Amino acid sequence: MNRFTRTVCPAILSEKWEEWGNRYSSNRVRNPGFSFQWPEVNGKPLNQWLLPDLLAMTQHHCSYCDGYPLRLADKTIDHFRPKSNPEFYGEVCKWENLYVSCGHCQKAKMEEYHSGLLRPDASDYDFFRYFVYNYTDHTIHPNPLAVIADQERAEVTIEILHLNESGLVEARRMEYNRFFVSNPGLLPEIYSFRFILI
Ligand SMILES: [Zn+2]
Known about the structure:
Shape: globular
Mean pLDDT: 94
Low-confidence stretches: none
Distance between the termini: 13 Å
Bound molecules: zinc ion
Helix content: 25-40%
Largest sheet: 2 strands, antiparallel
Number of strands: 6
Structural class: mainly alpha
Number of helices: 8
Protein backbone atom coordinates (compact mmCIF):
# COMPACT_ATOMS: atom_id res chain seq x y z
CA MET A 1 0.00 0.00 0.00
CA ASN A 2 1.63 3.18 -1.21
CA ARG A 3 0.82 6.52 0.34
CA PHE A 4 -1.02 9.09 -1.77
CA THR A 5 -2.61 12.47 -1.21
CA ARG A 6 -6.31 12.88 -1.88
CA THR A 7 -7.31 15.93 -3.85
CA VAL A 8 -10.32 18.03 -2.91
CA CYS A 9 -13.74 16.63 -3.70
CA PRO A 10 -14.56 17.19 -7.39
CA ALA A 11 -17.37 19.66 -8.09
CA ILE A 12 -19.44 16.92 -9.69
CA LEU A 13 -19.74 15.24 -6.27
CA SER A 14 -19.61 18.06 -3.79
CA GLU A 15 -23.20 19.19 -4.17
CA LYS A 16 -24.84 15.87 -4.83
CA TRP A 17 -23.09 13.06 -2.96
CA GLU A 18 -25.37 13.27 0.06
CA GLU A 19 -28.50 13.31 -2.06
CA TRP A 20 -27.28 10.29 -4.06
CA GLY A 21 -26.37 8.51 -0.82
CA ASN A 22 -29.79 9.19 0.68
CA ARG A 23 -31.50 7.99 -2.49
CA TYR A 24 -29.52 4.73 -2.52
CA SER A 25 -30.18 4.30 1.19
CA SER A 26 -33.94 4.64 0.87
CA ASN A 27 -34.06 2.37 -2.20
CA ARG A 28 -32.03 -0.25 -0.39
CA VAL A 29 -34.14 -0.05 2.77
CA ARG A 30 -37.34 -0.40 0.70
CA ASN A 31 -35.90 -3.24 -1.35
CA PRO A 32 -32.97 -5.15 0.21
CA GLY A 33 -32.19 -6.66 -3.21
CA PHE A 34 -31.73 -3.22 -4.78
CA SER A 35 -28.37 -3.04 -6.50
CA PHE A 36 -26.31 0.12 -6.71
CA GLN A 37 -25.95 1.87 -10.05
CA TRP A 38 -23.76 4.93 -10.53
CA PRO A 39 -26.00 7.94 -11.14
CA GLU A 40 -25.93 9.39 -14.65
CA VAL A 41 -24.49 12.88 -15.01
CA ASN A 42 -24.80 14.59 -18.39
CA GLY A 43 -25.38 11.26 -20.12
CA LYS A 44 -22.39 9.50 -18.51
CA PRO A 45 -22.26 7.28 -15.42
CA LEU A 46 -20.67 9.05 -12.45
CA ASN A 47 -17.83 6.51 -12.13
CA GLN A 48 -16.59 7.47 -15.60
CA TRP A 49 -16.38 11.09 -14.50
CA LEU A 50 -14.51 10.16 -11.32
CA LEU A 51 -12.02 7.61 -12.64
CA PRO A 52 -9.59 10.10 -14.22
CA ASP A 53 -9.30 12.02 -10.93
CA LEU A 54 -8.91 8.84 -8.87
CA LEU A 55 -6.27 7.48 -11.26
CA ALA A 56 -4.34 10.74 -11.25
CA MET A 57 -4.11 10.62 -7.44
CA THR A 58 -2.44 7.20 -7.47
CA GLN A 59 -0.49 7.80 -10.69
CA HIS A 60 -2.62 5.04 -12.27
CA HIS A 61 -1.68 2.47 -9.62
CA CYS A 62 -4.04 0.36 -7.51
CA SER A 63 -4.80 2.28 -4.30
CA TYR A 64 -4.30 -0.82 -2.16
CA CYS A 65 -1.57 -3.12 -3.55
CA ASP A 66 0.01 -0.44 -5.80
CA GLY A 67 -0.21 -2.75 -8.85
CA TYR A 68 0.55 -1.05 -12.19
CA PRO A 69 -0.55 -0.68 -14.90
CA LEU A 70 -4.21 -1.26 -14.23
CA ARG A 71 -5.92 -3.12 -17.07
CA LEU A 72 -9.11 -1.60 -18.42
CA ALA A 73 -11.25 -4.24 -16.70
CA ASP A 74 -9.40 -3.62 -13.45
CA LYS A 75 -10.15 0.07 -13.27
CA THR A 76 -12.98 -0.33 -10.81
CA ILE A 77 -13.93 2.01 -8.02
CA ASP A 78 -13.94 0.38 -4.62
CA HIS A 79 -16.16 1.57 -1.80
CA PHE A 80 -13.78 1.54 1.18
CA ARG A 81 -16.74 1.27 3.52
CA PRO A 82 -18.87 -1.29 1.67
CA LYS A 83 -22.09 -0.21 0.04
CA SER A 84 -23.74 -3.46 1.24
CA ASN A 85 -23.44 -2.38 4.88
CA PRO A 86 -26.51 -0.36 6.02
CA GLU A 87 -24.23 1.79 8.18
CA PHE A 88 -22.51 3.06 5.03
CA TYR A 89 -25.35 3.34 2.49
CA GLY A 90 -25.08 7.13 2.70
CA GLU A 91 -21.38 7.07 1.73
CA VAL A 92 -21.90 5.34 -1.60
CA CYS A 93 -20.91 8.50 -3.52
CA LYS A 94 -18.74 10.15 -0.86
CA TRP A 95 -15.40 11.20 -2.34
CA GLU A 96 -13.36 10.00 0.67
CA ASN A 97 -14.95 6.55 0.38
CA LEU A 98 -13.88 5.92 -3.22
CA TYR A 99 -10.60 4.26 -4.24
CA VAL A 100 -9.48 2.99 -7.62
CA SER A 101 -8.62 -0.66 -7.24
CA CYS A 102 -7.25 -3.61 -9.22
CA GLY A 103 -9.00 -6.93 -9.79
CA HIS A 104 -6.96 -8.70 -7.10
CA CYS A 105 -7.85 -6.21 -4.39
CA GLN A 106 -11.52 -5.99 -5.40
CA LYS A 107 -11.80 -9.76 -5.25
CA ALA A 108 -9.95 -9.97 -1.93
CA LYS A 109 -11.80 -7.16 -0.22
CA MET A 110 -15.32 -7.74 -1.54
CA GLU A 111 -17.75 -6.55 1.13
CA GLU A 112 -15.31 -6.96 4.00
CA TYR A 113 -14.62 -4.07 6.31
CA HIS A 114 -12.86 -3.51 9.60
CA SER A 115 -12.48 -0.20 11.39
CA GLY A 116 -8.71 -0.84 11.57
CA LEU A 117 -8.29 -1.24 7.82
CA LEU A 118 -5.59 1.22 6.74
CA ARG A 119 -6.26 4.00 4.24
CA PRO A 120 -3.37 4.86 1.90
CA ASP A 121 -4.44 8.51 1.86
CA ALA A 122 -4.63 8.96 5.65
CA SER A 123 -2.45 11.93 6.63
CA ASP A 124 -0.42 9.80 9.05
CA TYR A 125 -0.09 6.75 6.80
CA ASP A 126 3.34 5.54 5.82
CA PHE A 127 4.18 2.02 4.63
CA PHE A 128 7.11 1.56 7.01
CA ARG A 129 5.22 2.88 10.00
CA TYR A 130 2.91 -0.12 9.77
CA PHE A 131 4.72 -2.76 7.75
CA VAL A 132 8.05 -4.40 7.14
CA TYR A 133 8.99 -5.91 3.83
CA ASN A 134 10.84 -9.22 3.64
CA TYR A 135 13.27 -8.63 0.77
CA THR A 136 14.09 -12.35 0.65
CA ASP A 137 10.65 -13.91 0.23
CA HIS A 138 8.76 -10.72 -0.69
CA THR A 139 6.07 -11.06 1.95
CA ILE A 140 4.70 -8.15 3.99
CA HIS A 141 4.34 -8.22 7.79
CA PRO A 142 3.30 -5.86 10.56
CA ASN A 143 6.20 -3.75 11.78
CA PRO A 144 7.32 -5.41 15.05
CA LEU A 145 8.59 -2.05 16.31
CA ALA A 146 5.23 -0.36 15.83
CA VAL A 147 2.85 0.15 18.75
CA ILE A 148 0.46 -2.79 19.21
CA ALA A 149 -2.55 -0.89 17.82
CA ASP A 150 -0.62 -0.14 14.61
CA GLN A 151 0.52 -3.76 14.33
CA GLU A 152 -3.11 -4.88 14.63
CA ARG A 153 -4.18 -2.49 11.88
CA ALA A 154 -1.38 -3.78 9.65
CA GLU A 155 -2.47 -7.38 10.30
CA VAL A 156 -6.09 -6.64 9.47
CA THR A 157 -5.04 -4.85 6.26
CA ILE A 158 -2.83 -7.74 5.13
CA GLU A 159 -5.69 -10.17 5.80
CA ILE A 160 -8.51 -8.23 4.16
CA LEU A 161 -6.51 -7.34 1.04
CA HIS A 162 -4.78 -10.77 0.82
CA LEU A 163 -1.47 -8.93 0.52
CA ASN A 164 0.52 -12.16 0.90
CA GLU A 165 -1.46 -14.13 -1.68
CA SER A 166 1.06 -16.16 -3.72
CA GLY A 167 0.42 -14.44 -7.07
CA LEU A 168 0.92 -11.02 -5.55
CA VAL A 169 4.07 -12.11 -3.71
CA GLU A 170 5.48 -13.46 -6.99
CA ALA A 171 4.58 -10.23 -8.79
CA ARG A 172 6.48 -8.25 -6.12
CA ARG A 173 9.50 -10.54 -6.48
CA MET A 174 9.54 -10.00 -10.24
CA GLU A 175 9.16 -6.25 -9.87
CA TYR A 176 11.97 -6.12 -7.32
CA ASN A 177 14.26 -7.98 -9.73
CA ARG A 178 13.23 -5.79 -12.64
CA PHE A 179 14.00 -2.66 -10.67
CA PHE A 180 17.13 -3.61 -8.76
CA VAL A 181 18.70 -6.37 -10.86
CA SER A 182 17.83 -5.43 -14.45
CA ASN A 183 17.74 -1.77 -13.48
CA PRO A 184 16.77 -0.27 -16.81
CA GLY A 185 16.88 3.16 -15.19
CA LEU A 186 13.20 3.93 -15.60
CA LEU A 187 11.31 6.27 -13.32
CA PRO A 188 9.84 4.47 -10.26
CA GLU A 189 6.37 5.78 -11.21
CA ILE A 190 5.96 3.10 -13.84
CA TYR A 191 6.67 0.22 -11.47
CA SER A 192 4.24 -1.65 -9.26
CA PHE A 193 4.75 -1.79 -5.47
CA ARG A 194 6.68 1.45 -5.21
CA PHE A 195 6.82 1.23 -1.41
CA ILE A 196 9.61 -1.35 -1.70
CA LEU A 197 11.49 0.36 -4.52
CA ILE A 198 11.93 3.92 -3.38
ZN1 LIG B 1 -4.58 -3.97 -5.97
